[in-house]
Specification:
The complex is a heterodimer of chains A (about 325) and B (about 325).
Chain A lengths: L13 H26 L6 H26 L7 H17 L4 H25 L4 H20 L4 E2 L11 E2 L2 E2 H19 L1 H11 L1 H6 L4 H27 L1 E2 L8 H11 L10 H20 L7 H26 L5
Antiparallel strand pairs in A: 1-4, 2-3
Chain B lengths: L10 H6 L1 H19 L6 H26 L9 H18 L4 H25 L4 H20 L14 H4 L1 E2 L2 E2 H20 L1 H11 L1 H6 L4 H27 L10 H11 L11 H20 L4 H25 L3
Antiparallel strand pairs in B: 1-2
Helix pairs in contact in B: 2-13, 3-8, 3-11, 3-12, 3-13, 4-5, 4-6, 4-11, 5-6, 5-11, 8-9, 12-13, 12-14
């Protein structure tokens, strides 16, 4: 409203802005790797990088899920506590001797069901996504607390591919993550469901007028988030080896941070899972490098919070300039 | 918005007013609790109940103002702002040896500063409030931890400062009588009787229309976030006077309570609609509810989930009511 008009001589051209927007994350990633290679001994070793992959695989799937609803101009702040509930159920079933394939199926179904709760409240109840998921996050936390009942559940990886196992130095779980991101990237780009997500995120009313089933698509997106959380929960069990009362709570912000830092617009309609993978790599390497440098882990929240604020500022400011340049209105 | 000038409102309108519903709910809950537990209505319990309510009431007031200001306004950082302000006050009082009263003043100003960071990013840069305050939620919370290395601070039990949090005047806790009640009284008066209140509803309803009648939309919205930060810091001052220690996790999860109270109080999440007097009643409901659960030995972890249910239920209720009402 009161944005000052920049003298045109100093204003970057629209094309330059687009290039800058797309190139920023790769540049930052390279700069980050160079910085930590110099500052933190052992950072660029194969063993350390494999560790980073294993330690951030569950987070990657959460971030992929959050990307889907952010594309819709929604949000899901319940993914962390939701993961905790599914992790408890999965670990408990596994310890009780349930066949591993069945555990996987149940975890995916349970995740999908919990996601459907969010979807039903957002679409059917017409509650804003933030209020819905803030509420269900609290409910999921309590559900886990009641299930946990003062007893930690210790369990190993349900199947080897969902644990820290490596094949020839390559972490298997990394391949699972890549496969999921590959499928999602394909669906978002080439399938009707994916294109509808973008259409709704850009202009829900316009999409509805064009015949896009807005409610059904949004509901499906929230269910899909739950399914991804279900898979992530089993990876979490394989990585941590124990499910405690607050399992998963710490993962919500980094998941949203990966989406935002990756450059998926929080206003919806622009972005994708591959960008999220880049954002996730940036955050995972940042947390790892900082620990290797000997900075106390208490600083993690400060760094991630600052990264999110800067990324959003950059995204919204360049987007607005671009919109003004090309005469688009949003 | 204000219907004070009209002589009569239809009975159905008055019954479906959120505040009537909340008032009935408070009484019903209170009656139920006192039946379930003979200790519920004891004077000591009523005291402790409202002492706890004073802090989250201040946060809920700040969040309500921000939501009323519209354009997706929300402040998720209030809990962390409370934690960080409390720690800053501890550093001033304990490490610098400042008088707790003076430290409290500085702390409220510091809280406004924390709010102004949100306000700057939201109102001046036009960034989405949800993400801005989510990132400051983690930023402020983590800073509070970093500043104390995870430990706690004290130095508040001097110069009669504890009286603010631990004494009662005519049976009413000092922080309720001297802080919470005046804050809500001023806010309710301002909402209904001043130009500020009218402007608040105008920017909450339509940015464009408000700008066209000459309101500096961005400045007003910036101030709302500052106000929310200052109220959170005031909550920290009250907490420090009450518990006499400042912990970096003091405000953890309080944003959920604050937003629940705002939504339950009938503040419409898209801005421009709702009464702060309704928020005060919702505060009473939540305080009675959590105190009753406490007496029934339902732990904090379970209360969190019940609060989540209340939040979702209240939001559903808001939608049902607003669907029926015109506009």
């Amino acid at each position: 409203m009161t944005t000052t008009t920049v003298p045109s001589a100093f204003a970057p051209s629209a094309r330059m802005l687009v290039v800058l927007r797309n190139a920023l994350l790769p540049i930052l990633l390279v700069a980050e790797v160079i910085f930590f290679t110099v500052a933190a001994p052992g950072f660029l070793s194969a063993a350390n990088l494999a560790n980073v992959v294993i330690n951030s695989a569950d987070l990657a799937l959460l971030a992929a899920g959050v990307t889907l609803v952010v594309l819709l101009a929604g949000i899901d702040v319940s993914v962390g506590p939701m993961l905790g509930v599914v992790a408890w159920v999965g670990a408990t079933l596994f310890v009780a001797g349930t066949p591993p394939p069945l555990v996987v199926v149940i975890a995916l179904l349970l995740g999908g069901a919990l996601g459907a709760v969010n979807g039903a409240l957002v679409v059917g109840g017409r509650i804003s996504p933030i209020i819905t998921t803030l509420g269900t996050a609290a409910i999921f936390k309590t559900v886990l607390f009641i299930l946990w009942d003062s007893t930690d559940v210790f369990a190993g990886p349900v199947v080897p591919a969902l644990g820290p196992a490596r094949a020839g130095g390559l972490p298997l779980v990394g391949l699972v993550v890549l496969a999921v991101f590959g499928v999602l990237a394909y669906v978002l780009r080439h399938r009707v469901f994916g294109r509808r997500l973008f259409a709704i995120g850009n202009d829900a009313e316009g999409a509805r007028l064009l015949g896009v089933p807005v409610g059904r698509t949004a509901f499906a997106a929230y269910v899909l988030v739950g399914v991804l959380v279900g898979l992530a929960a089993l990876i979490y069990v394989g990585r941590v080896g124990v499910v405690q009362a607050t399992a998963g709570n710490e993962l919500t912000l980094p998941a949203i941070a990966a989406v935002v830092v990756g450059g998926t617009s929080i206003l919806g309609g622009e972005g994708g899972v591959l960008r999220t993978l880049g954002g996730l790599a940036f955050i995972a390497l940042l947390q790892n490098g900082v620990v290797l440098m000997g900075v106390p882990p208490l600083w993690n929240g400060v760094l991630v919070g600052a990264a999110v604020a800067l990324a959003v500022a950059f995204d919204v400011l360049t987007r607005r300039t671009l919109d003004k340049r090309i005469g688009a209105r949003k | 918005m204000t219907t004070g000038a009209l002589p009569r409102r239809p009975l159905r309108d008055r019954v479906s007013d959120r505040r009537v519903f909340l008032a009935v709910l408070v009484v019903a809950l209170g009656a139920l609790m006192s039946l379930l537990s003979p200790y519920f209505l004891e004077v000591g319990n009523l005291l402790a109940m409202t002492q706890y309510g004073a802090v989250i009431g201040l946060l809920a007031l700040g969040v309500s103002l921000v939501i009323l200001g519209g354009r997706g306004g929300i402040d998720l950082s209030v809990g962390s702002a409370l934690s960080l302000s409390g720690i800053v006050m501890g550093l001033l009082a304990q490490n610098l040896g400042l008088s707790p009263w003076l430290a409290a003043l500085v702390t409220v100003a510091f809280g406004a500063l924390l709010g102004s960071v949100n306000g700057f990013m939201v109102a001046r840069l036009g960034l989405p409030p949800l993400i801005v305050t989510l990132s400051t939620l983690f930023l402020y919370g983590a800073l509070a931890q970093v500043l104390t290395d995870g430990g706690q601070l004290g130095g508040f039990n001097r110069e009669g400062f504890a009286a603010l949090g631990q004494s009662a005047i005519l049976g009413v806790p000092a922080q309720v009588l001297l802080v919470l009640a005046p804050a809500f009284a001023v806010a309710i008066w301002a909402q209904n009787r001043t130009a500020f209140g009218r402007r608040l509803h105008q920017i909450g309803t339509s940015d464009r229309a408000a700008a066209l009648v000459g309101i500096d939309v961005n400045q007003l919205r910036f101030r709302l976030y500052c106000l929310s930060g200052a109220l959170a810091a005031l909550g920290a001052v009250v907490t420090n006077a009450w518990l006499l220690t400042a912990r970096p996790s003091a405000g953890l999860g309080m944003e959920l309570q604050a937003i629940t109270i705002a939504v339950l109080g009938g503040i419409h999440i898209f801005g421009g609609r709702g009464h702060l007097s309704g928020v005060l009643l919702a505060l009473a409901v939540v305080v009675v509810l959590s105190w009753g659960l406490q007496l029934a030995q339902v732990g904090n972890s379970v209360q969190t989930g019940i609060l989540g249910l209340v939040l979702v239920g209240a939001a559903l209720l808001n939608n049902l009511l607003s669907r029926r009402a015109p506009g």
